[in-house]
Design brief:
Elements: E1 16-18, E2 24-26, E3 34-35, E4 46-48, E5 53-55, E6 60-61, E7 63-68, E8 82-87, H1 101-104, H2 112-116, E9 120-121, H3 124-134, E10 138-141, H4 150-162, E11 166-171, H5 177-183, E12 189-193, H6 199-206, H7 210-223, E13 226-233, H8 241-254, E14 260-264, H9 278-290, E15 296-299, E16 309-310, E17 317-322, E18 325-328
Parallel strand pairs: 8-10, 10-11, 11-12, 12-13, 13-14, 14-15
Antiparallel strand pairs: 1-2, 2-3, 4-5, 6-9, 7-8, 16-17, 17-18
Helix pairs in contact: 3-4, 8-9
């Protein structure tokens, strides 16, 4: 069996291994692309230069912001705190509704050299120093799929953990088992999109498969990583009771403590259906609760109490949210009224 490439220097995608006939197999995600010389994988940024697999976007941030943690969305991970967020060009999915399509699908209309020059320079040490200088407690790898810029995220996460920062992946959950095994010790939390219930949906709308995503959610939760899951509800595509019930029951089967974020869709990129009706979001919320999930949230809408965290035992209001404004009433990680332990990181 071919050995995994282990050349760990900036710009080399060492999450890979040689394959037959000059191909290099990428091990970053569950596509497991076998890439010919002069070509990239599906993501458009992992490039066979004839000698090694090159990460074209290493140290090149296409989007950089300091966000509220709730925007990831994470509701049980240091609520009310700030998080430094960055991403690159490219993606291993092709979601027809992508809000960040200008960066995620950049590779489809640009050359390798243009991808190399995309974004702005941001080294792992610069990202970490930015947080330390400003008292920002966490770093998020987000905006596009962080699994495709694995080595860049890995080196940033390792340094961030050494400096006492929290680290977050905002992901489609399609990483390979090899990549997750490598990076999991350096990631504190993930928000994972579980976009639909079936392979049919994933293949048609996203360009992936649901099986690896579900396996990764289950694997990471069992390993002790904090996981929250998001499903964007799109009218006429993934809003049927059967599919929503299947998602909710899967999550509850992993753990009823896992938060499920039901997010409202708005027309974007190649999808022009009207926005998700509130009645659909409310129906999905009830499905989640009926499946046994203790923490179900409705996002992308001013939904009032459906964004709040309440105690599953006594129904006390624990965390009140108005947009990204947060009032945290927890006593440590406990309900101040009945003492119930609330799962998460507080």
């Amino acid at each position: 069996m071919a050995k995994k490439t282990n050349v760990r220097k900036p710009g080399i995608a060492w999450m890979s291994k040689p394959a037959k006939e000059g191909l290099i197999q990428c091990l970053a995600c569950s596509h497991y692309c076998k890439i010919p010389k002069g070509k990239t994988g599906i993501c458009g940024v992992r490039y066979n230069n004839g000698k090694a697999l090159e990460l074209l976007v290493y140290g090149r941030a296409a989007a950089v912001n300091t966000d509220p943690i709730e925007k990831k969305p994470l509701h049980h991970f240091y609520p009310g705190s700030e998080i430094f967020s960055f991403g690159t060009m490219g993606c291993n999915f092709k979601c027809l509704f992508c809000q960040n399509w200008d960066i995620s699908q950049f590779h489809k209309s640009h050359t390798v050299e243009e991808i190399r020059k995309s974004g702005s320079p941001l080294s792992p040490s610069e990202a970490v120093d930015y947080c330390l200088e400003r008292g920002i407690p966490s770093i998020a790898f987000t905006y596009n799929e962080p699994g495709i810029f694995f080595e860049y995220a890995y080196e940033t996460a390792v340094l961030a953990k050494k400096k006492g920062l929290h680290t977050v992946y905002v992901s489609n959950g399609f990483e390979s088992e090899e990549a997750l095994t490598e990076i999991a010790p350096y990631i504190d939390a993930m928000n994972i999109d579980l976009k639909g219930a079936t392979d049919e949906y994933y293949i048609k709308i996203c360009g992936g498969r649901v099986g690896p995503v579900k396996k990764n959610i289950e694997r990471l939760w069992k390993q002790g990583m904090w996981i929250e899951v998001t499903t964007l509800i799109e009218p006429n595509h993934n809003d049927d009771d059967k599919g929503l019930t299947e998602i909710a029951e899967f999550l509850a089967g992993v753990s009823p403590d896992m938060p499920w974020h039901i997010s409202r869709y708005f027309p974007c990129y190649q999808m022009t259906d009207p926005p998700t009706p509130f009645e659909t979001l409310e129906r999905a919320y009830k499905i989640g609760k009926r499946a046994g999930l203790k923490y179900v949230y409705v996002g992308n809408i001013l939904s009032g109490k459906l964004e709040n965290t309440t105690c599953p035992k006594c129904q006390a209001l624990l965390i009140e949210r108005h947009g990204y404004s947060v009032q945290n009433n927890l006593k440590g990680s406990h309900c101040p009224k009945c003492g119930e332990t609330i799962p998460g990181r507080f």
